[in-house]
Amino acid sequence: MAVKAGAKIKSASIPAPYNPLDLPDGSSVEFIAVGAEDFDAEREIFSRGSWVTQKVRALRVHADLATPVFGAPFVDVFAGRTVALLKAWFSKVGFPARVKLTARGKEPDKWYEVEVSPVGAAA
Amino acid sequence: MEARKPREEVEMRYLAEYVGIAFPDAVRVWFQVPVGDTVHHLAHMMGVPNPRWFWRYGRRADAVVVTKSDVWVIETETRRPVQGLAELLVYKERLPETVHLKPWLRGRRVRMLLVSPFLEIDTYLAAKNAGIEIAVYRPAWLDEALLRWGVLSRAE
Question: How far is CA B74 from CA A99, B40, B56, B87, B97, in A?
């Protein structure tokens, strides 16, 4: 799993490999989350013409093997607001949960729309 | 160079916790969801068939929660509830034209909800007049942030 251009992971409190979530504007990933663990990481981001080291609290979300994310059984979320949101949601609602993450906008105004529903829920 | 410290994301935790606790029967939940047809309107104006490039210009509700009988549009405001009230008034107007939410609106009642850790009487009265419901949610962990922001005084 390659770390995508624009952000490099320098170190993390969990071992590599990493599968960072970095979707282009309007793209989505959908999977069934079966567990999550938070971790600390230092990464370099390209901001205003130079590389800046940034400490982040990240979240590794484990996916059901039937719904891999970019081919892997987990995805590493580094976007701070999305991490806080998913951690709080999983702590109150639990697993499994169907999760869809959609990138909206471009940096520095990028955010992730988060859609969650119980597995097997119908309209 | 010293690494930047991680930001504390109080509002997102507050929002997700409240929705998780208050809507155990939710069929579907969206967080940070665009409301209104601005994106599709812009795409049409620019002659672009796919509106995805315009999502960033849309109004963004904190959460939309679908239950069997209702669609809830939720704003959480930890510091200034009156701001959430203003946003909900706009979302209320724009919700029926929100393309990706339309299928969920059929046969369900639309309800607007402002969630805040405290109650402001004038905001409450204005919300009541506008048909907007108010919930007070103040978890113990939030007080530290409210003190830091000066929303609460040490005497409280």
Answer: 19, 23, 19, 10, 17
